[in-house]
Every structure is written in structure tokens, then in C-alpha cells.
Amino acid sequence: MASFEGTFTGASGLRIAIVVARFNDLVTGKLLSGCLDCLSRHGIDTAATSAQLDIAWVPGSFEIPLVAQRLAASGRYQVVITLGAVIRGDTPHFDVVVAEVSKGVAAVSRSTGVPVIFGVLTTDTLQQALERAGIKSNLGWNYGLQALEMGSLMAELPG
Ligand code: INI
């Protein structure tokens, strides 16, 4: 019997891309900070000169799948992290944006074989989003961990 598990160390030389939405950047900027803090503490070079990490900014969460697709298909990254915040109070098309970004991210992951971490908060209020982006906890940290785990797990799996 084989048992496969990812690890949480950046020493394996993972290359990571992060796609961040500018919309609600009060929230997404904090998610990014938490994510970078996690990656850095686990051995990923997060300096501006890093060859291990690239960051792409998009206008809103709706645009995340397209850019994630390009990055995942490039062959340069073992894992892509997406960060966004869709807040119901802000938009009558909340459901459209959420449906597109969630299905889009899943489709990119499956079609490219590159794990794409779904770090898009979907909340009813800005307060709820901020609570998840640093006021209570910072889910950006969790997304960083999940990226390390999935990137290393995929390298372990056969095929
Ligand atoms: N994009 C978000 O990331 N979050 C939102 O809450 C949001 N609202 O409220 O509309 C949002 N809209 C922009 C959308 O993602 C696209 O950037 C835009 O429609 C252009 O395609």
C-alpha cells in the first residue's frame, strides 16, 4: 500500500504563482500579507527578487480564472494561489461572480493538472471578510499552507 502526503516546507524548490484581485483590496491585501508571511516562514523566498514566487494582480475575482489558467499552463509553477473577496452587500451580481470564479478555478486546476488554491472569500458583509483576513484570523495563511501541501503532494503522486 502506498500512502501519499504533502509537506509544508518550501525547501523542495516549489515555484508558486499568486493571483490577487484588486477589488476589495482592503481585504485581499491582507490575505496576501498573511499568505506571504506563511510561505516565508515555511522556506519560500518571498523577496521582490525571488525566482520562486510571482504575483499577478487582476481587477476583480471574475478575472482570476483566466489569469490562473495562463500561469498554470505556463509550466513554470507547481501551484497557483488565488486571492479575492466577493462581498454580497457590494453587488447585485454577487452570485454570478462567485459562480464564475469558483467554477473557473476548479476548471483550471483540472484542465492543467496544476493545483489551484481557492482563496476567494465569499461573505455577506465587509466585516465578515475582514474577520477572515486578519481581524480574527487570516485565511491567507491557510491558503499558503494548502499551496505547500498540494504542490508537494502532486510531486509525490504517480503519473
Ligand atoms: N469583484 C470582486 O472581486 N469582488 C466583488 O465583491 C465584486 N463586486 O462586488 O462586484 C467584484 N466585481 C468585479 C468583477 O470581479 C470584475 O472585475 C468586473 O465585473 C469586470 O469584469
List keywords for this structure.
binds 5-nitro-6-ribityl-amino-2,4(1H,3H)-pyrimidinedione; four-stranded parallel β-sheet; 159 residues
Write up what this structure looks like.
The chain has 159 residues and is of the alpha/beta class. The chain is built from five helices and four strands, in the order E-H-E-H-E-H-E-H-H. It has a single domain, classed as Lumazine/riboflavin synthase (Rossmann fold), CATH 3.40.50.960. It has helices at 25-41, 64-73, 94-112, 126-131, 139-156; strands at residues 16-21, 53-58, 79-87, 116-123. It has a four-stranded parallel β-sheet with strand order 2-1-3-4, with helices on both faces. Strand 1 (16-21), helix 1 (25-41) and strand 2 form a beta-alpha-beta unit. Helix 1 packs across helix 5 (139-156) and helix 2 packs parallel to helix 3 (94-112). It is globular and about 45 Å long. It starts with 15 loop residues before the first strand and ends with a helix. The mean pLDDT is 95. Bound molecules: 5-nitro-6-ribityl-amino-2,4(1H,3H)-pyrimidinedione. Residues 21, 23-24, 59-63, 84-87, 90-91, 97 line the site of 5-nitro-6-ribityl-amino-2,4(1H,3H)-pyrimidinedione (INI). Residues 21, 23-24, 59-63, 84-87, 90-91, 97 line the site of 5-nitro-6-ribityl-amino-2,4(1H,3H)-pyrimidinedione.
